[in-house]
Amino acid sequence: MPRTVTLTDASGAAIGTEDVIAAHTGKGSLHRAFSVYLFSEDGKNILIQQRSSEKMLWPGIWANTCCSHLFKHEDAVTAGRRRLQEELGIDVPLEIQGTFIYRAEDPQHRGVEHEHVTILLGRTPETIPVKPDPKEASAVRWIALMDLKREMTRNPEQFAPWFHFGLHQIFQQSRIERDNETTRQRETFRHRMQKPSPRLHLAIIPDGNRRWARERSFLPWKGHEQSAETFDALVEWCRNDGRIGVLTFWCFSTENWKRDPKEVKKLMELLEESVETKREKLIENRIHLIRSGRSDRISPALLTSLEELDRATAEDPAMTLHLALDYGGKDELLRAIRTLPKGADVTEEDLRAHLDHPELPDIDLVIRTSGEQRTSNFFLWQTAYAEWLFLEKYFPDLTPEDLQNAIDGFMKRERRFGS
Predict the structure, then answer these.
(1) Gap between the Cα atoms of 131 and 141, Å rounded
(2) Strand ranges (DSSP E) for 269-414?
(3) For residues 305 and 279, what is the distance between their CA atoms, to the nearest angstrom?
(4) pLDDT one-digit tens code per residue, 305-352
(5) Which pLDDT tens digit goes with each residue over 143-190?
(6) What is the pLDDT of residue 176?
(7) Are both 163 and 202 inside the same structural domain?
(8) pLDDT at position 188, please?
């Protein structure tokens, strides 16, 4: 490894050099580095390494395929291939994905990383013979991306900070590219959904999970676990009944972050597991999964899983399952307003076009469980003319029969839409 590092400004331009140890002590000096990420040929698995216990910073922690600093006058790709050979005994073609800046202090106070990192990507067969240098890596393994995301979400401290930043950047770029590729498909879907349809947009506010658990002397998340089983049964009923075109389900509000962190962590783990286990069934039943809400506070692993499932289920859906995750009605409207051109003569159609899912029809019926009779910041725009039904029972006790009775009753109502 180079004994000096190249110092940079925020743009990545070189501004000098410094001894490698000095650059990693005190507050840390911003310097050039690179991180290599090797994926399997199908892109589903990634090669990661466990850093040697001899490392000065983050010893024994799992990290990406390899990372290091550049020699003077060395470009990032050349440096990455050199380091692959030095650390793992392999040579793989690499390409630049992007850059990011991060700063992190070693948890044992051994030093600081403050780097301007170039991300390097490569693909290789998983059968490639890897021979790690024990002074650099104590172990290597191929791991499925879905499994890695799950591990990094549950145990973030077991993975190097730059690994979190880099992987998130890769996923972000991949999402942008995939979204561009599917624009025409989404426009076709939007056109289809905006056509007049006799099928209903049903929304459910699943209230009472914690009270259900408390009355049974269970921990709070046991109510959420039972709620997940109820959710499955209701989705299946809606799909088979045929009268529901869109089912909106409020998973987590913008205010729910105020709850006990342990409960929030359990709930997010449950959501992530649920997305993975339901994948094949959603595809088989032609249920298109989409999401509304903020993206900046949800784990990259969960976001990626949801977006991948969105794309996998988008073609010719029989029903749309719309999850509201880190969602609040005021927040959605604020985010929409901030994207509008300044000084423009904004119409109702303009504002609607900037909502999370403008292609969806407005909500027809909202069912809220647990006896609470308030709207609670739920889809303020889309529920302007919705009918509301408040049920006394807690959500874990809600049955398909309850939905059938609610829909049957709704169909008999005369709706005036404010006239």
Answers:
(1) 12
(2) 287-292, 319-327, 365-368, 387-390
(3) 10
(4) 898 899 899 988 999 999 999 999 999 999 988 888 777 788 888 888
(5) 998 788 778 877 888 999 999 889 877 876 665 454 454 444 445 444
(6) 45
(7) no
(8) 45
Q: How many CA atoms lie within 13 A of 89 on its CB side?
A: 9
- 144 DSSP β-pair partners: 45
In a domain, 44, yes or no: yes
Residues paired with 156 in a beta bridge: none
What is the rounded distance in angstroms from the CA atom of residue 75 to the CA atom of residue 95? 11
Domain assignment present for 181: no
If you search the block for the tokens 């992530």, which residue do you land on? Answer: 272
Band of residue 193 on the pLDDT scale cut at 50, 70, 90: very low
* 32-74 residue pLDDT tens: 999 999 999 988 899 999 999 999 999 999 999 999 999 888 9
Report, as an integer, the average pLDDT of 385-397: 95
As a residue count, the chain comes to 419
Amino acid 413 reads R
- Looking at the structure, tell me whether residues 129 and 220 fall in a common domain: no
Task: Assess whether 80 and 43 both reside in one domain.
Answer: yes
Q: Report residue 315 as tokens.
A: 């073609």
383, two tokens = 């529920």
Query: Which of these, 300, 307, 233, 302, lies nearest to 274 by C-alpha position?
Result: 302
Residue 126 in contact with residue 185, Cβ under 8 Å?
Answer: no
Q: Which residues lie closer than 8 Å to 265 by C-beta, 6 or more apart?
A: none
CB 239 within 8 A of CB 285: yes
Cβ count within 10 A of residue 308 = 19
| Locus of tokens 């006239």 | 419
Residues 131 and 232 in one domain: no
The residues assigned a catalytic role are 207, 256
Q: Which secondary structure element, helix H or strand E, spans residue 165, and what is its range?
A: helix 161-181
205 and 137, same domain (yes or no): no
For residue 354, being part of any structural domain is answered with yes
Q: Is 350 helix (H, G, I), strand (E, B) or coil?
A: helix
Which one-letter amino acid corresponds to residue 346?
V
Asked whether residue 214 is domain-assigned, the answer is: yes
pTM for the whole structure: 0.57
Q: Which residues fall within 8 angstroms of residue 136, CB to CB, at 6 or more apart?
A: 49, 51, 52, 55, 66, 86, 87
* pLDDT reading at 263 higher than 70: yes
- 299 & 170 share domain: no
- 339 neighbors 355 (Cβ within 8 angstroms): no
- 267 CB contacts (<8 Å, ≥6 apart)? 221, 224, 252, 256
49 and 63 Cβ atoms separated by less than 8 Å: yes
